[in-house]
Task: structure prediction
Amino acid sequence: MDIRPIFSALRRHKLATLLIVLEIAVACAILCNAVFLIHQRLSRMDVVTGLAENELVWVKNDGLSGDDAPALMERNLAALRGIAGVKSSALAFPLPLASTSMNFNPGMDADGTVRGPNLGMFIGSPGYLKTLGLTLVEGRDFNADEYGDMESWLPVSPVMIVSRSLADRLWPGKSALGQAFWVGKKRYSVIGVVEHLVRGDLRGTASEYAALFAARPNRLFSGLYVLRVEPQARDRVVREASELLLRLNPQMLVTDKGTYAEMRASYFRQDTSMAWLLGVVCAALLVITAAGIVGLASFWVAQRRRQIGVRRALGARRVDILRYFQTENFLIVSLGIALGMALAWAINLFLMSRYELPRLPWHYLPVGAVVLWLLGQLAVLAPALRAAAVPPVVATRS
Amino acid sequence: MFTYYLDLALRSLKRNKLLTGLMVLAIGLGIGASITTLTVLRLLSGDPLPGRSATLYYPQVDPTTREGDEPQGEMTYVDAMNLWQAHRADRQAIVVSAQVKVFGPQADARPMGLSTVATHPDFFPMFDVPFARGGAWSVADGAAKARVAVISQALNDKLFGGGDSIGKSIRLDRWDFRIVGVLDRWRPTPRFYDLYGGGAFAAGDDVFIPFETSRDLAELGIQGSGVDCWGQMEDEVHLENQPCLWLQYWVQLDSPAKARDYRDYLVSYSQQQKALGRYTYKDKPKVALRNLTEWLDYNGVVPSDVRLQTWLAFGFLLVCLLNTVGLLLAKFLRRSVEVGVRRALGASRKTVFAQFLVEAGVVGLAGGVLGLLLTLAGLWAVRRTPSDYASLAHLDAGMFLATLALAVFASLLAGLLPAWRACQVPPALQLKSH
Result:
């Protein structure tokens, strides 16, 4: 099909063409970046915590103090194990994605002159790795006699289990077993490596820099009971566990409770609502852009009724008229897309400088282009069909 | 003349309902999205203490061995107490908060977890905190580690049915405190004075006690939620001599000259501490004295998501406006004949221009009303999100007017170009061809 007549027609409507091209360009630029942002949020939410997420419930409380605290905690743990559907119970701090964390930079030598990367510390009572459902890929779990006392947040027990991510970072290319780091004057050596373990909060590539320590129940981490339960019993256990703890400890304050799925959802709540918002804006953008195309195309069809009649009288078929408007729309949208891609790239650069976003992957651009081409063709279809229906006899009227 | 144009505009808009509907929808959606995000942004970036914020400062010094030029955000007990005892500012207060287990006066009631602030009495006048009954404790009460408390209006309503609770007692964990003051409603947004405690948009605090008492009863655990140690912590209850940052310190300095003097004082204080061997900075002392607004900025109190949403909304508004310009252009140029006739009958370009602008303005006003409804719906949705600030998102009178003004302004802007093009129509040509 010869597109020269289309160009000369568009040249006579420079302003309107320019406007619709600009609208498509801005829409294309925003769409590409918004979809990219949605993708970023969703992939952040895909993180593997390493826990048996479907089987965990937790009860947070204000903790215990005093000399009898360890005994009371042992009693509470035993009582919790008595609830139907509970497989095991432990005290642990923190949980992955709990939004609280304990962090430190270990010394890589005895005097602490060489410091390792900032990493998250996990502490728990006997059996807590099993309760959390962590998977060991190397070495072994803590033995019963390796759970000891604590001295101001530092476990006395000199052994630890690290995440594979941390092991690869600290001792690349060799087995982590037997390796050690120092916290203050205390030396801790690795006896096991877990496959995955995410910290209390996500920190980019350091999200899984985590080390697990062992201690008997201690008032320092008396605030969080974790239970591994039958998945279908979760909601009931949450309720019963908190009632049981309140009954056993009349002064206790249960500050929060829930399933691990809820804790995870609450960590990502902001991301979820942002993804929804971006999605709604994308949809609205598509609707508005389509409306703009329909409006302008209808106007042009109405304006050119006579010319269309003349063309039809001179032998153009309906399909030729249809093709004319479809091709015109394709050209306009293509111009918009070309401009929009440059704009999308510019917006991405701006976002990268302000919000620490990665570069827009190139494949977003062709996908965005195809979407807008389809949208344009759909939007122009109704006006173009109306144009094709103009009878040749119109040419004779004035 | 204006009413005549208004009449013409309404007739013309009625003639093509679809096109009019599209334009109103576009402006309404764009305005709704922009005003919703702007309301949230304004809520979050507002000045919590208008008129006072320029005299409130957050001093920073740095006793740590860490790298970097910026001093730390929090203070050690030693530094905070040294600065407080020096009394170099017009008012000064240490601020630290935590959730504390509180028991009401009723026997065997279950405890509540309440946000409790430990501070100095200057806190109340310095931050313009209103009292409904009683008042703050005295400096002497603090020095005597008196177990006295100021409670919020909400807590007074809850525990004492809104009655006079002065002199009555509440129990914080294991200790009884005598109530000396009840606040009036007070919830500054953001909760600027305690960014390291419950969070910038957390619900208000319920209990205020003397800082000295909170140290005397260290097991209350009022340590903030960001204890930050640069060395080995040896006692997690008594943080007084630990290498840990955990306190916030605020001063009021009534004139810029006093602020300059205070900054000099921070420098000389740091030099003195270095001479004593406490500080280890290399070249020059790491100090800062930010005022309230600068402190909020420095801490990035406005979530970056909210800024991003605002950018997005205005990008969307731009698309909506381009759309409206295109549609108005189509609409106006379609009426070239009518314009030609009017021009031939003696209408000047100016009057034609005015007529079309009025029409654009009518579209804008309708779009504004739709936008207003969408804004209300949008804010309703925001209030249903789980963010801390959600419940505060409401449309105030200012933003209400701003919505309509922005809509009309935007539509007039969109109408400028089409109206100008329309009034360029030469009278003779149109008459000739028809």
About this structure: The mean pLDDT of chain A is 91. Chain A touches chain B through 51 residues (CB under 8 Å). The two ends of chain A are 29 Å apart (CA to CA).
